[in-house]
Design goal:
This protein has no helices and ten strands. It is mostly beta strands. About 0% of the residues lie in helices and about 50% in strands.
């Protein structure tokens, strides 16, 4: 949701990569530089999603945690623990809710207002 052609054209173009080593890396595409390595998950990370305004990143892992990160600071802002591993995370279009799909056949919608 950043860079030319997006609703946030003046923000740098970033990429988030999820990994089975339980890390997430935030990359600056224009410089091919790793800005942050996010390391609070304990098991493989299956899903990442940027908020619509590009300020936050949601991540889901098989450690049963949904984490919300500050993209600007590379810091963990909030965590939620569910009843199973997280397979998918997704923001709503206004960026105030995050949905998470857990391996125990539940879907959770978190109200995220800062």
């Amino acid at each position: 949701p950043t860079g030319l052609g997006s609703e946030n054209p003046n923000k740098p173009l970033l990429l988030a990569s999820a990994s089975f080593d339980a890390t997430i890396k935030l990359w600056d595409i224009s410089t091919t530089t790793c800005l942050y390595s996010l390391t609070k998950h304990e098991d493989p990370v299956y899903s990442v999603a940027f908020s619509p305004n590009g300020e936050y990143l949601a991540s889901g892992s098989f450690d049963r945690c949904l984490h919300i990160w500050s993209v600007k600071e590379g810091t963990l802002i909030r965590s939620y623990r569910g009843g199973g591993g997280v397979f998918e995370v997704c923001w709503n279009s206004s960026g105030d809710k995050v949905a998470s799909c857990f391996s125990n056949n539940t879907v959770c919608v978190i109200d995220f207002r800062m």
